[in-house]
């Protein structure tokens, strides 16, 4: 895991925000249009995670590992 304090703080903020979202209300949208957008986002997330598991080692922090390369295929050709 990274020892960079900035990366660790950002990971903490990310998980704290997710905890607040889960604790304060409905996780899924009630509006059909918003639920569709949310579903598309979840599908994109799953595709990205599966793609990255095949391409490289995953880590929680956003620090660039030595010898790493920029992935520009799969879902990452559309979204960066």
UniProtKB/TrEMBL annotation:
Biological process GO annotation list? Answer: methylation
Q: Where are the transmembrane segments?
A: 33-53
Record's keyword annotation contains Transferase? yes
Domain of life, per UniProt, equals Bacteria
Which keywords label this protein? Answer: Membrane, Methyltransferase, Transferase, Transmembrane, Transmembrane helix
Q: Name one GO molecular function term.
A: methyltransferase activity
| Full protein name | Isoprenylcysteine carboxyl methyltransferase
UniProt organism field: candidate division WWE3 bacterium CG_4_8_14_3_um_filter_42_11
């Amino acid at each position: 895991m990274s020892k960079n304090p900035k990366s660790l703080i950002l990971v903490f903020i990310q998980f704290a925000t997710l905890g607040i979202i889960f604790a304060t209300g409905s996780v899924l949208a009630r509006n059909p249009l918003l639920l569709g957008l949310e579903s598309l986002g979840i599908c994109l997330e799953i595709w990205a995670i599966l793609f990255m598991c095949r391409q490289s080692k995953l880590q929680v922090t956003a620090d660039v590992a030595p010898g790493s390369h920029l992935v520009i295929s799969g879902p990452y050709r559309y979204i960066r």
